[in-house]
């Protein structure tokens, strides 16, 4: 099987949009690839974090991914910070990366504009990302369009290194997933539902209570037409509710339109709320069991042992190529 590597960012609380738009694709990938999934906790600290909250969120998010269907027997799951070879290799790669390449990264430009004092780590983290990928000879890295540039940088660094020192690294390919259902903010259906939004009224979090879920969906912004059909341009609120129902019921949008063709907006919202509650309560039950036991610790420990062995072999070969290591 080809190897696939992906990261689970521990920033922000996971949302219904995270489940439908991303996590479900990771669940599908585990059937097709030798899947490596890591928590990029070192990347998380490129911007200020509350240490206690960050540590809690790392465990919570791993538990939620497991509860959503990520199978630890089909994935190698590990923490980035528990493997020192990531940062060690990153330094070697930094010494083989040009300033012009690093300064062209659009993510750095976008994120740095939002901060008064910018950390050096925010500038160099795409090179650490390259190390994350190249350590494990990943064939594919699933990324959104906004992250594709980082995989291309990893390809450029690996190609230059191989040409200079001999074949060491597998050249990774960005894997742009098929466009999943994009879930929009319930209060502003022209914007994507985002875990980074400061106002949570339009966001359904995976750990929201039944009461909160129902309240948020029943309060979703719609329009005055009171006719249920899909038209994202003219009826974004209703279209968003239809998209949610379609994704969770595995029905085509057209089927959902027919189902609710004679319904008013209130009935549609009740049905969507019921399905969301049913889906998330099942996930929350599994989540609780993962959080209560020591399953997560054991999974991460196994992942740590396995990936340190693989990473050491790759890092040692890199040191030998550049003239470092044992003499």
What does this molecule look like?
The chain has 327 residues and is mainly α. Helices cover 54% and strands 7% of the residues. The chain contains 13 helices and five strands. The protein has helices at 16-29, 41-44, 51-67, 85-94, 99-103, 106-113, 120-134, 148-165, 210-218, 236-249, 253-259, 265-292, 295-322; strands at 3-7, 34-39, 75-79, 140-142, 173-175. The strands form two sheets. Strands 1-2-3 form a three-stranded parallel sheet. Helix 4 packs parallel to helix 13 (295-322), helix 9 (210-218) packs antiparallel against helix 12 and helix 10 crosses helix 11 (253-259). The model has no long low-confidence stretch (mean pLDDT 92).
Q: Top keywords for this entry?
A:
single chain, 327 residues, mainly alpha, two-stranded parallel sheet, 13 helices, 54% helix, elongated
The secondary-structure element order is EHEHHEHHHHEHEHHHHH
The average pLDDT is 92
Main sheet makeup: 3 strands, parallel
Count of alpha/pi helices:
13
- Rounded to the nearest angstrom, the distance between the terminal CA atoms is 37 Å
Describe how the helices and strands are arranged.
Blueprint: E1 3-7, H1 16-29, E2 34-39, H2 41-44, H3 51-67, E3 75-79, H4 85-94, H5 99-103, H6 106-113, H7 120-134, E4 140-142, H8 148-165, E5 173-175, H9 210-218, H10 236-249, H11 253-259, H12 265-292, H13 295-322
Helix pairs in contact: 3-12, 4-7, 4-13, 7-8, 9-12, 10-11, 10-12
């Amino acid at each position: 099987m080809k190897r696939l590597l992906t990261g689970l960012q521990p920033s922000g609380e996971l949302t219904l949009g995270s489940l439908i738009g991303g996590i479900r694709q990771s669940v599908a990938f585990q059937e097709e690839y030798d899947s490596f999934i890591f928590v990029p906790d070192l990347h998380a600290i490129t911007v200020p974090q509350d240490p206690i909250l960050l540590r809690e969120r790392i465990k919570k998010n791993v538990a939620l991914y497991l509860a959503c269907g990520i199978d630890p027997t089909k994935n190698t799951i590990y923490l980035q910070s528990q493997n020192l070879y990531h940062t060690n290799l990153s330094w070697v790669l930094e010494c083989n990366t040009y300033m012009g390449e690093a300064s062209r990264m659009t993510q750095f430009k976008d994120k740095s504009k939002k901060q008064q004092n910018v950390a050096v780590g925010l500038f160099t983290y795409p090179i650490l990302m390259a190390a994350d990928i190249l350590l494990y000879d990943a064939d594919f890295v699933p990324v959104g369009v906004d992250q594709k540039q980082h995989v291309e940088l990893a390809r450029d660094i690996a190609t230059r290194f191989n040409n200079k020192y001999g074949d060491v690294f597998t050249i990774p390919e960005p894997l742009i997933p098929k466009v999943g259902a994009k879930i929009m903010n319930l209060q502003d259906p022209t914007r994507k539902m985002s875990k980074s939004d400061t106002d949570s009224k339009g966001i359904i979090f995976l750990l929201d209570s039944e009461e909160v879920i129902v309240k948020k969906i029943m309060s979703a912004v719609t329009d005055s037409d009171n006719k249920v059909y899909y038209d994202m341009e003219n009826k974004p609120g209703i279209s968003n509710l239809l998209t949610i129902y379609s994704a969770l019921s595995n029905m085509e949008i057209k089927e959902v339109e027919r189902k609710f063709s004679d319904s008013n907006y209130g009935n549609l919202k009740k049905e969507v709320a019921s399905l969301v509650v049913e889906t998330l309560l099942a996930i929350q039950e599994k989540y609780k069991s993962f959080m209560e036991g020591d399953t997560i610790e054991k999974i991460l420990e196994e992942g740590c042992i396995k990936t340190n062995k693989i990473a050491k072999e790759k890092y040692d070969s890199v040191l030998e190529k550049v003239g470092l290591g044992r003499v």
